[in-house]
Structure formats: structure tokens, C-alpha cells
Design brief:
Blueprint (H helix, E strand, L loop, with lengths): L5 E2 L5 E4 L5 H11 L4 H6 L3 H22 L1 E7 L2 E9 L8 H6 L1 H11 L3 H11 L8 E8 L8 H16 L3 E5 L2 H8 L3 E3 L4 E2 L6 E7 L5
Helix pairs in contact: 1-3, 3-5
Length: 214
């Protein structure tokens, strides 16, 4: 996929996610989500969490390059933020795509060890709720030391420009209650009761953005 570049309010460029971005982008998302209530619950060892999440998002973003769309913010060759979004009908991953990702799945399972069942449960709770006719924001994050400077907004706006060009709706989830108000700024709204990850644990907040034309 050819890189597409435009300038944003911070001094970063916004580019389409490409294969060479994946290692850095996975690490950026992992560090951005390391204090996420859901992942903190599923991966309680903070010393391992970033490494496990990096492996998870290397697998996710490699699939995004082939079957979805993504954006990164960059300062020169340094990735500062990343977002992965799947067009309607491309998520969840069918068995054939899981099979092609087999090596990455094995590496993730070996790294996550006893945390693997929790990650599987997270997928089981989220995948069925993704509307097949919606664009699905699978992951988004900005490097923690560079947050609150417009990079997240630039990534979301780049993705939503595609959604609005298609005149379709978009769906996402978060386990961070404070993010609900953040995503409401972009037109998302809660569509059902939060789904608890476990009794007494954090919940998944599903949100939908209605279709609109750009």
C-alpha cells in the first residue's frame, strides 16, 4: 500500500500503516495501553505486560497491513502513534487468517503463558459484538510521553475520513471509563451495557458511531 502523508498540528506526519512500521507501532500501542484496566486485569505482572502486548499487537498489525487499514504518526522515522481499523466484513479473523498467523500465535502463547486464557476470553467477549457492517477500530495508541498533543485526534480523524467517505458506521470498545467521553467527541455513543471481563473486574464499553457522509 502506498504511503499517504499529511501534516498535523503536532510536528508529526500521518502515514498509512505499512509493514516496516509494524515493530515500532506495536511497541507504541503496547506502551500506550499498558495501564489499560482490561489489560492490567488480564496481565497482572507489570514487568511482563508491555512485552506481551507488543507481541499481541505485532500479530494484530501484521494482519491489519494485509486485511485492514492503519495509520501511524511519525517524527522522521520514529513512530509516535498508531491506529488499526478494519473495513466491514474483515473482522473477526476467519480460521484461514489465524492459520497464516500460526507462528505469531505460538510465540504470543509462549510469552503470555498463564495469561493466554484471559486473552482468549477477551477475544471471545469482544469479537461477537463487532457489527459485521461496521468499520472496527481494533487498536489505537500514542506513545505515553507524547500524548495529549493532538496525535490521537489526528489518527482518529484520518480513519474516520475513510469511514465517512464510505458513508458507513464505526464501532470500537474500551475498558477505560475515561475514554468513553473522549470517543464521544468523535461521534461515538455507548450502545449497550458494559460487559464485565470477570465478576468484580473491569468492563468493556462498546461504542458505535452512526454513518455520516463526509
Amino acid at each position: 500500500m502506498a504511503a499517504e502523508r499529511r501534516r498535523v498540528a503536532p510536528p508529526d506526519a500521518v502515514e498509512r500503516l505499512a509493514k516496516h512500521h509494524v515493530p515500532q507501532a506495536a511497541r507504541v500501542i503496547a506502551t500506550a495501553l499498558a495501564d489499560d484496566p482490561g489489560y492490567s486485569h488480564l496481565m497482572p505482572d507489570p514487568g511482563r505486560r508491555v512485552g506481551e502486548l507488543t507481541a499481541l499487537y505485532r500479530m494484530t498489525l501484521a494482519d491489519t497491513v494485509d486485511h485492514g487499514l492503519g495509520f501511524v504518526t511519525t517524527l522522521g522515522t520514529v513512530v509516535t502513534g498508531a491506529l488499526a481499523i478494519y473495513p466491514p466484513g474483515t473482522y473477526p479473523m476467519p480460521l484461514a487468517r489465524w492459520a497464516r498467523a500460526g507462528g505469531r500465535v505460538v510465540r504470543l502463547a509462549a510469552l503470555a503463558r498463564e495469561h493466554s486464557p484471559g486473552l482468549i476470553r477477551f477475544g471471545q467477549l469482544t469479537a461477537p459484538g463487532v457489527p459485521t457492517h461496521s468499520w472496527y477500530v481494533e487498536a489505537a495508541g500514542v506513545r505515553p510521553d507524547l500524548q495529549l498533543a493532538g496525535r490521537g485526534t489526528a489518527l482518529i480523524e484520518a480513519a474516520l475520513a475513510l469511514v465517512d467517505e464510505a458513508g458507513e458506521e464505526s464501532y470500537l470498545e474500551t475498558t477505560k471509563p475515561a475514554n468513553v467521553a473522549y470517543y464521544e467527541r468523535f461521534g461515538y455513543a455507548s450502545i449497550r451495557e458494559p460487559v464485565p471481563l470477570s465478576p468484580g473486574g473491569p468492563s468493556i464499553f462498546p461504542m458505535l458511531r452512526a454513518a455520516r457522509r463526509s
